[in-house]
Amino acid sequence: MIYGALFVLFSLPKLRKIKKIGPDVPVALRDNAAHQQPELLGRRLLKITGSDITVSGRENIPDGPVLFVSNHQGNFDIFVCLGYLEKPIGFLSKVEVKKIPVVPKWMEAINCIFIDRRNRRQALLSLKEGTEKLRNGHSLLIFPEGTRSKGRQLGEFKTGALRMARDAAVPIVPVAINGTYAIMEHNTGPVLKPASVTLSISKPLLPEDYMNMDLTEIAQRLHHTIQQSLEK
Predict the structure, then answer these.
(1) CA distances from 219 to 94, 165, 227 (A)
(2) Which residues form the Phospholipid/glycerol acyltransferase domain (predicted)?
(3) What are phi and psi of 53, to 5 degrees?
């Protein structure tokens, strides 16, 4: 945590440079520039824990904007995805994170969406913002379980955020994360331990595959795909 805080603090000059990038610069170049520091942070934090990260299926990630859909085992899931997907992503975050100094500024730079789940109207507006991000060429990551499982079990998928992909007509990429719970959640007290973590990326669900499906069917299909990856 101390390393992460210092990393973010000393990255402020780079954040200022990123904010100066003009709108005439292509989306992919802007996102790649903004993603360099978060990717580096993700990799370094996992290295500090001594964990081993194995990635499979990167060839399944399409070019252009996608919605990544992942299971959620622990707090290190975000850092695994930032560090090892090798594609710039924003993600949905609790609005309370805005109270943390500096961090929200970086999150805005990588196109994260802040959502207040206690306020239905605001939550819907946030999802509309996410749809526009996808339409404008940015990729997003969601955890449809809504909370950490803190283990290998896979919870039920909520459907609301999947509407962003359908409304923007972008591919949905299933991602299975396994092992992150052993870094932190299964330990007694504030202790980090090394773990063997796998990041498995399955073939995308393309718009032509899911446009005739309702959100519940889409969620069930993604759940099944991720469950199969976890069982491997």
Answers:
(1) 21, 12, 12
(2) 66-180
(3) -110, 125
Rg (CA), the chain: 17
Q: What are 17-39's pLDDT values in tens digits?
A: 999 998 899 999 999 999 999 99
Residue-averaged pLDDT of the chain: 94
N- to C-terminal Cα separation, the chain: 32
User: What number does CATH give the domain 2-231?
Assistant: 3.40.1130.10
- Describe the strand order of the beta sheet including 140-142 as a list of residue ranges: 52-56, 196-201, 172-178, 67-70, 140-142, 90-94, 113-115
Would you call 146 exposed, middle or buried from its count of C-beta atoms within 10 A (0-12, 13-18, 19+)? middle
Domain chopping of the chain, boundaries? 2-231
Which of these, 188, 15, 162, 166, lies nearest to 103 by C-alpha position? Answer: 15
